[in-house]
């Protein structure tokens, strides 16, 4: 059974930082492009960041220069380092794994507020 389990969400003030983690089980993350999407209340799901099976990374325009995605295939783990957080970053963040079949985690809430 494939599972993607996110952690690290929470409440942070504007300008602050958070690091999200995603641990994958039941699949080899090295065979999948891993990533993060987010969905704010009342809005459509939005691509945030992705990392290929090599070292290539991709970012949504709204987070470029502020967020960094990384992975450790030995640990089947992907991280999302989020800096200079803004109120508009408030959303549920989902870990994703794209391969022959796509998977999503249950999500972790990130709230940016003073």
Provide a descriptive summary of the structure in words.
By secondary structure, this protein is an all-beta fold. The protein is 0% helix and 52% strand. The protein has no helices and 11 strands. It has strands at 3-7, 10-12, 18-25, 33-39, 46-51, 57-59, 67-72, 77-82, 91-98, 103-104, 108-112. The strands form 2 sheets. Strands 2, 4, 5, 6, 9, 10 and 11 form a 7-stranded mixed β-sheet that branches. A 4-stranded antiparallel β-sheet has the order 1-3-8-7, with no helix packed on it. A hairpin with a 6-residue loop joins strand 4 and strand 5 (46-51). It is globular, with a radius of gyration of 13 Å. The model has no long low-confidence stretch (mean pLDDT 94).
Summarize the structure.
By secondary structure, this protein is mostly beta strands. The chain contains no helices and 11 strands. 0% of the residues lie in helices and 52% in strands.
Helix % is under 10%
Mean pLDDT across residues: 94
Rounded radius of gyration (Å): 13 Å
**How far do the termini sit from each other?**
40 Å
Order of helices and strands: EEEEEEEEEEE
Number of helices: 0
Number of strands: 11
In terms of DSSP E residues, the strand content is over 45%
Structural class assignment: mainly beta
Task: Describe how the helices and strands are arranged.
Blueprint: E1 3-7, E2 10-12, E3 18-25, E4 33-39, E5 46-51, E6 57-59, E7 67-72, E8 77-82, E9 91-98, E10 103-104, E11 108-112
Parallel strand pairs: 2-11
Antiparallel strand pairs: 1-3, 3-8, 4-5, 4-9, 5-6, 7-8, 9-10, 9-11
């Amino acid at each position: 059974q494939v599972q993607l389990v996110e952690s690290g969400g929470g409440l942070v003030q504007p300008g602050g930082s958070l690091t999200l983690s995603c641990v994958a089980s039941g699949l080899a993350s090295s065979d999948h492009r891993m990533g993060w999407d987010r969905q704010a209340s009342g809005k459509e799901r939005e691509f945030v960041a992705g990392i290929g099976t090599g070292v290539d990374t991709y970012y949504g325009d709204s987070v470029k220069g502020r967020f960094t995605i990384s992975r450790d295939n030995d640990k089947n783990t992907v991280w999302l380092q989020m800096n200079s957080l803004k109120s508009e970053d408030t959303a549920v963040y989902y870990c994703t794994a794209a391969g022959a079949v796509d998977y999503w985690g249950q999500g972790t809430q990130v709230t940016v507020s003073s």
